[in-house]
Specification:
globular, signal, 6 strands, alpha/beta, Rossmann fold
Length: 168
């Protein structure tokens, strides 16, 4: 048992030593309606602006990953995210989202999650798992704001809030 605990501690330390990047994931939640906004495009622009703001900060690379709102298999999306993060050696997931909620409020959200080692039998790291969000910032705007909002400017501000909080 003690050997397994030591192996797990060494594996966690090795993972932490390579925590030099972030996966920045964005996905639309609203499907495009005839004559309505292109939610996938809005989410892509928001995500790209967050990546631009985060990339290189504290010498950490930010890897973008976006998916269309039509992709709804949460399990598959989660596996894709964890696989991408593991392949890149990232230990942080930054999630970006722009959507309207059930009340019609326009929501812009940025959340950061630690990606934690998943320890298998024998104490070896067998993959990653999502931790509890370590940071959340959100803006709620009237629905008409979607036509005039400065997506990239809001994304840069929200990313700066995250970096300021992350620096503490």
């Amino acid at each position: 048992m003690q050997r397994e605990l030591i192996a797990a501690a060494l594996a966690i330390a090795a993972v932490a030593a390579h925590a030099d990047c972030r996966v920045v994931f964005g996905q639309g939640r609203n499907l495009r309606q005839l004559g309505g906004p292109d939610w996938d495009d809005i989410n892509q622009r928001f995500n790209t602006a967050v990546v631009d703001a985060l990339d290189g900060h504290d010498q950490q690379h930010a890897y973008p990953l976006t998916m269309a709102s039509a992709q709804t298999d949460v399990q598959a999306i989660g596996r894709t995210l964890l696989k991408q993060a593991d392949q890149q050696g990232c230990r942080t997931l930054v999630e970006t989202a722009v959507f309207t909620d059930d009340q019609g409020t326009l929501v812009l959200r940025l959340r950061a999650y630690p990606l934690l080692p998943e320890i298998g039998d024998g104490g070896a790291v067998v993959g990653l798992r999502f931790g509890t969000p370590s940071f959340v910032t959100q803006r709620e705007l009237p629905p008409a704001a979607v036509l005039r909002m400065k997506t990239e400017e809001l994304a840069a501000r929200m990313a700066a809030e995250y970096l300021q909080r992350d620096a503490r």
